[in-house]
Amino acid sequence: MRLLQGVDPQHHLLHVLFVASQHKNSSSSFHFYLHALPEWPSHALYYTESQIAAMEGSRAHSHILEVQSLFDAEAGFISKVFPGLFEAIGGIEVLRWAFAIVSSRAFKIRLQGDPERVMVPGIDMFNHMPITKAAVFFNATADCVQLHTDRNWAVDDEVFINYGLNLWSQP
């Protein structure tokens, strides 16, 4: 079931849960992880009008407008369906932060059956390298998410993962 056209319903759920968890602050089981995340993520939702105007005519321009439109639709949906939560978490700016964090860090992985959108603290902080053959998968036997890389890494090396071929297909 789609809640908004073109939006994965799990995306809504991640935003709501993530924002609610962030709101709990020190009592959240994600407290230390959340505080390691950027306060002002580099994301389309934080570009100024003049920055967006300067990109007019580029593919980035249309993508930024699409992401902003999606955020506006999700914010409207969440404030309508969960008005108490929307107010309790601090309103639109906290939701903007959560949207930016989730949309830039969540990815799909097959847990059981169809791929599901997840956030895996730690793995979401790896940088992208298109030529690496690292894979993130769910090991049902061990009941954990694992990262397998294409080689052994030396101490102090930065480990990269491949975000996939179509990075901008899902905001």
Q: What is the string of helix and strand elements? A: HHHHHHEEEEEE
Through-space gap between termini = 19 Å
Computed CA radius of gyration, to the nearest angstrom: 17 Å
Number of strands: 6
**Strand fraction band?**
5-15%
Low-confidence stretches: 1-7, 166-171
Basic shape = globular
Mean pLDDT score: 78
Instruction: Summarize the amount of helix as a percent range.
Output: 40-55%
Number of alpha- plus pi-helical segments:
6
**Sheet bearing the most strands, described?**
2 strands, antiparallel
The main sheet orders its strands as 1-2
Category by helix and strand content: alpha+beta
Features:
171 residues, alpha+beta, two-stranded parallel ribbon, globular, disordered N terminus
Structure, explained:
With 171 residues, this protein is an alpha+beta fold. It has helices spanning 9-24, 31-36, 49-54, 59-81, 83-88, 92-105, and strands spanning 107-110, 115-118, 127-128, 135-139, 144-148, 160-161. A two-stranded antiparallel sheet has the order 1-2. Strands 3-6 form a two-stranded parallel ribbon. A two-stranded antiparallel ribbon has the order 4-5. A hairpin with a 4-residue loop joins strand 4 and strand 5.
